Amino acid sequence: MQCLICESPKNVRFNCEYKYDVKEDENYLKGIKLYRCDECDFTFAHPMPPMDVLNDYYENFYRTPDRPPYFLTGNIEDLKRECLVDRNFNYLLYLTTFLDFSKIESVYDFGAGNGDVGYLLKKKFPHLKLYCTESDKHCKEILNERGYKNYTNIDDIEEKFDLIISFHSLEHLSDTKIFSFFKNALNQKGHIFYEVPNTEKKYFETRDSDSPHLCFYTKKAFEKINEIYGLKFVNFSYSYYSFEYDAKTSKDARLGYEKLKNSPLPLLKIKQFLRKILPKKLIQFRRDLSKVKSINSEDRINNFINNSGNNCYIRGLITPK
Q1: Non-local CB neighbours of 240 within 8 Å, separated by 6+ positions
Q2: What is the pLDDT of residues 98-122, one digit of tens each?
């Protein structure tokens, strides 16, 4: 088999077994093992799931209520408020440090989810035009309300963009060829910003699960991609929590979901029923109380510390050479 970056079979070897986040993922991501190209320092899933299976997974299952990692409630107002999390403010600080948004007119978000970062940028820079690609049915209503033009098929895109952003989407793709599209979709002097999990050796030593990720990047892997597609770094950084903390939160979320799912009582259905009958103000008060505890936690420091030497994410700001 060939590496998905350099397309050479010479340095590809078996890396490890694939770890599923929730049991239901096995229905979509069957029989996967992880292989690594030593030349590119890049790990990838094999065999790759068929594209129609992946489309079904992301359109109908990935963001279903109460499923990790999002644990969504199904309430659209809850989803809108999720834009005000520390990680998004970290993105805003980073982007406005390196880029002059008075010279940026168009922002395209690949794998936008609810389009939180573009929405927040437009709050500060109202002249921005927002575009995206997002197929998840749970996100489309919010994207439309926030003024995004959503292309569910990138082949339909004819516009050129000043800034392309992609937050934790590249690792879900079955190849790395999206960078060819990104470069061709940029205006002259445009920029691409992405963030993905940092999957160097320590990731595989500490991680709790892999699914539904299919591509596992490192700095060296992105350097190889830059060489192939004629791109260069404006900045490359390591960000967010430690590997150990990330693995712990992932494990806690998975075990919490399994406890609800496997309980002799239909706890998931009870939880969803209570949301429907309890006063919305009471539910919101409970959530606000939980957020206050989070705000007052010293763990919050990790949301704003980059390049600590033990960060579980990597991010790059790149531009054509």
Answers
A1: 87, 90, 246, 302, 303, 306, 311, 312, 313
A2: 999 999 999 999 999 999 999 999 9
